[in-house]
Amino acid sequence: MIPDDQVEEVRARADIVQVIGDIVPLKRSGKDYKACCPFHDEKTPSFYVVPAKGFYKCFGCGESGDVFAFLIKRLSISFVDAVKHVAASTGIEIREVNRGQSGEDPFQHLYEANAFARMFFQDSLWDEKVGRPASAYLQERGIDRETAERFGLGYAPDAWRGLHEAASHHSIGEDVLIEVGLVTRSEKQKDAYDRFRDRLIFPIESLSGKVVGFGGRVLGAGREGSPKYVNSPESPIYHKGEILYGLNWAKNAIRRRETALIVEGYMDVVSLAAAGFENVVAPLGTAVTPDQVAVLGRYTSRAHLLFDSDGAGLKASFRVADLLLAGGVHPCIVTLPPGEDPDTIVHAEGAEALQGHIDGAVDVLDRKLQILEEHDHFRSIEHTRAAIDRLLPTIRAVQDPALRDIYIAKVSERTGVRRDTLEGELVRSAPRPVPQRVTRRQDHRRTPAAFVPEMGPERELLLLMTKDRDWIERVGERLGPHDFVDVRYRAVFEALLADHDLTHPPEKMAPEAARVLEELLADPTELNRAHRVFEESLNKILSTLMQERLDAVDHLLQNTLDEQQETQLLREKARLSKERRELGRDWSPAAHRARKDNHL
What we know:
Number of strands: 16
Oligomer: single chain
Largest sheet: 5 strands, antiparallel
Structural class: alpha+beta
Low-confidence stretches: 99-103, 431-454, 585-600
């Protein structure tokens, strides 16, 4: 059999259109797909696949179900084989176990440790003596006991080894507690101690309802120097970039209401749920990831973002919105009053007040246009040009062709820039793929870490991005990860794009890349004339890439015997040469050697 958590993981990641489309020829019909039903004879298509909700339905014979049901019915296979079939297409390795084994899951011991910890924290919360500060804090925040118990909230006592000792009495070993992240050991102290102490505890559950990790929040202002939140580290059962807090409770409500409310943290989710908002989720202390968007997309094609109304909140909203668009989820921005967040509004003014703000949400592109107009960004040619640069990432992220068409038309109307010009700009500024024929040579060049000088254009551009985070978006509009030759710099670039507020290396970052990021963050160099650094570094990188493509074209020209192909290659070479000249100074290696020779 296959553990329930893996079944849910496979279901959440499954691309039902791809799986069914491999068996039945599907045609797009709006946001859905249709075909002649494979379960009965028909000439007019009545079989529909709805990717936003993860199911299929035939309006002729009535057959319906999820991706597993389709495979079971169509291929006459077992449920286990259906799960394996889908898992193979998603890259998930199945952990199948026999019913006769002592444990149904190789990670059962970790789930049991977490289940015990949740019970320990819950008991501590409702202990009149031990949990009084935490229960009083919940009451102050408007969280009743029913809501607290629904989310399994608890309290970690202010003791160094409270959970550790309680677990040992139930034969849960220290090595298990360390593996799952409930206890830790510092370099100075030999004895392991509880990770969570004097904190309100939020259990994090998988879609199947198993506890995979915990989040701990300080009570009130907390102790000086203590972080507001402490979270479980990554473990064999917990991958924070793949889970949305609250989704296991909210998924059915999200489907019913056809939208998800995305907030910033645990407390926002619980507060809104207590106020009657059932379709609320939050990322787990990190920037929203494509994996989280993919999971959310199984339940809805719309989302409302309820982040803080300050500058940082707006930037976070726009980053998440672009990720949602790229994942096929249409985002709307909820504008909250200055200094307010969803929790404070619900607590001070009630659910109706927050619902009013949600009802007033606007499309992400409309919100960007509003902000640009509020700051008078269309008052001159220069500012309009800068405004277009800010709008392009959102247009480029859209996967829905109809929505993309609407966005382009709206930006064209507001800026006065012709539609075909905007479309050309989207193509021009997008990263260009390198011809397949030169992949092997490129892989050879991209492997050695020492190939790029330490203060070459790639490092200089990354230093600019870490010194002034406003440059991250600008650089991301012009370059993609594979435009970076050095694999370490490529990893740092990807990390900065994923989290503009990054202050330390992500946990899964390769050690070599992590060292580079730490060096960049600690580098005291002050970059004067940031615009010049940006333009020159960018031009050097793009010029080198264009030279690679020119080399690839030359290689193809030398080996082609087809006159028509030769003509096409010569046109491509002329176009690339023109684009490189338009960058300004030629920064290609060949040009650099020529300049060096001229100075000898």
